[in-house]
Every structure is written in C-alpha cells, then in structure tokens.
Fold this protein.
Amino acid sequence: MSDDALLFDEFAPEQPVETPDEQDRWKILIVDDEEGVHTVTELALDRVRFAGRGLSFLHAYSGEEAKTILADTKDIAVVLLDVVMETDDAGLRVADYIREEVGNREARIILRTGQPGQAPEEDVVVRYDINSYKEKTELTARKLFSTIYTALRSYRDIVALERNRHGLEKVIEASASLMEKRSVKSFSQGVLEQLSALLYLERDLFLLEYEGLVAEKDGEGLHVLAHVGNGSKSLDTDVLNRIYEALNAQTDVEKEDCFIRYIGNRNGVESILYVGGDHPLEMVDGHILNLFCRNAAVAFDNVRLNTALRDTQEEIVYSLCEVAETRSKETGNHVRRVAHYSKLIAEELGLSPQECEELFLASPLHDIGKIGIPDAVLNKPGKLDADEWVTMQTHATIGERILARSKQPIIKAASIVAGHHHENWDGSGYPHGGKGEEIPIYGRIVALADVFDALASKRCYKEAWAISEIKEFISSQSRKKFDPQIVDIFERRQSAFEEILWRYNDEMVASAAD
C-alpha cells in the first residue's frame, strides 16, 4: 500500500469551506523530495481550519530549498519535514537551521520519515527540538489532521506568550523610567501588546485585521497614547463614537467585534483601552481579562501619580531657581539651557535614562547658593577683589548644605551639583579641591555646561564671547578645568550646544512672551 493511499484511508473531519485571503491563513511548509507527498498532504489538509483561518502551503523539495524559504518567510506556523532527501540527514540539518541558525523557536516541526531507523526518535526529538515524530506509514488523513491542529494550537499559544513577554518588557522598561515624560506612552504600548496577546490576536493577523489603542481624555480633549494595528493613529468616526460611549457612561463596552475598558483616574484624566476589528474577537477567560484590566487601571493610576510627582518636582526646582535669579539678575533661561546641555552630555556619556532625567531636573539648582551672597558682591559690575571672591565662592557650599537636607533623589542630586560644579579636573577648583574622577560625574558635567553658557551670555560684568572663542577656551582647558571626555563630547556635539543656546535665547523668549 502506498503512502498516498494511507493518507486517504480515513476521511478528515468535515470543515466549512471558506476562502479567506491568503495573507490571513496559517502557513504550512511541506519539505519532501517526493512530489506526490506534497500533493496528497495538501489535499488531505485542504479543508482544515483553525481559529477561523485556513491553511496556506509552501513547498520545498530539498533541504537547501527549505532553508531559503525559511530565511525569507518569518511566520511559518508548521514545518512538515522529511528526513532523507538529497542526503540521509538533510531534514535534520533543516531542523538545526530553524532552531539554531535562524533562532526560530515558534514554528512547530513535525518530522515525517519513511525510514525510522535512519533517525532514532528519542535522539532526534531531544537534539533537534522536534515537536512531533511520525512515520509516514502511520499518517492517515485523520491523524494528519489531528497532528496539524495540535501543532497550530501550540504555535498560536507560543506566539501569544512571546507577544505577552514583549509587552511585559515594555511595561517593565516604563516602570524603571517613571520619571521620564515618555513613560506613560511606553507603559501604554506595553499594556496594549499584552492585551492583544491575551485576546489571541496573533502578530500578523492583528496587524492586518484588528486595531488596538490606548487613549486618554483630559481638559484638552482625547489623545492617543499607544496604537497597534495597520490603521493610522487618527480615530475614525465609528471608533470615536464607541470610545465616547464608554467615556460618557464611565463603563466598559463589550461587543462581538470590539472590547473597550474604561479606566477612571484620580488626577482628572480618563483612559480607554480599545481593541476592535472586522471580525469577532476570540475572548479568553473573562476572569483573567477582567483581572488584567483591573491591574492595568491601578498601574495607569500609579504611572500618572509618578508623572504628576515629576512635574511637581520640576515646578519646585524652577521656583527655587527664580528666587536666586531675582537676586543675581540672571535669566531663567540660563538654568534651562544648562539643564539641556547637561542632559545632552549625560546621554553621550552613556548614563542611564533615569540618571539623565535626574540630572536634567537637578542641574538648574547649581547656583541656588547665591541666595546667600550679598547683593554688592553678587551683582558687582567689575572684577571682584580677593575678599569678595572668597565670599562669592561660598555659594557652592551654601547651596550644597541647603539641598543636602532633603531625602528626595532629585534634590540630593542637586546638592551634589551645587557643591561640585566649580571643581576642576586638575584639583585647583573649589570648595572641596576634588581632582579627576574624585569629582562626582554630575559636578563634572555641569561644570562645562555652566561655563559654556556663562561665556556665551551677556552678564553685568562682561559681554558675550564668540562661539569660536568659547570653543578654543574649553578645548584648552581639557585635563585642567574640565574632564577630557566631556570636552570631547562638547567638540563633537558643538552644533547641538549652539542649537540649545539659540532655542532658549533670552531675547527671543522674552520677545515671544511679549
């Protein structure tokens, strides 16, 4: 009896005959050097449907041809793989290529062999991560159906788990950087991807047929925070109406083709999780989905609270700066420019996003100690004498001491900046006389940022320097006044410094305010 006959000696279960778009089908790769095996396999599985989708068949007649297809096609769900083709172990080489070279752990590999002695089952399954091992003589049409159906279910679940993992990574990344303004959007994107995984919206099908988004409504209107799908981020009328239905009723909306979760907020912001598409959603256990959304709502609230805390800290920092500025007659844009220079340098040095943001918020307080300096010294139009210079130098110690009392990370960082931004790389600075890497990195960064802006700005005691003069001075102070690595960054990113100087130019900002 031939393999062809064996495949048809039982009829596969009847399936509804539909013709979905080719791109919506599960991809099955048949790898066998016998053309007849391809034909009977495709005929036996022609009516199979899983999760509302049919099958699409790809054909390879050698191991090398299979590798080419696998390299070009990333969403193959099942590989029906013969062992003996152009060589006795060609199929095993393909399996090794899938798992080790391509790194594909999602595709299900079903090994079919007419010579079981050539590839012992136990060795092959363990060594090559084979998901099913079948002798061709036992693969009737019904058994082939069961094998493929089981493999597709496993593939779907693995893809969903991988998507869930990817979404979780984004949530964790956002949680680790809650001080950053973009954390809410990053968190939203992660939550949305996890939700799509829970709803079994596989990667390709989801992008093609479904749309998901996280939106928020505040006093300024409705905004999209995160979006997954093939559509644009603009909301069409139907989606918008459904979202407003949930917002107005302050309740969830569950329909055959969409799922909307309403998330209230203590900070006056309402959020919406929306998933909808052209086909009915395959819902999972309602308890799990509700638990996920309930936890997501709590997490959204916490992210918002952290964002509000960040904004509050920023307001406090700049309010304190304004107190110092009214005495020293320096503009608020000086501290804003220093903040942006400092963040630029920190990013170039490879500091963590949290450290970069912390320095961005802390650096404006570098001269807060000037509130303790007498007006006659602080605003003297000419050069300070020796005694006046000693008095002026105390502003670093005053600022460090005042800010050190706080337990808040940003204020503690500001204390470090205030006390060390006048230290010099060669040890000649004040107030601690630190040298080289003994000086905290925040102090070394703000030292250059502050000097660049001071030289580029007009003060009561001097005119602004030309950029070429500033560059020459800073370069000459490498390993003397400044950390040489930071000087290198300034020289490499000089145009970015100039752009910040121009963007926050005192005259331009004042003119815009008028």
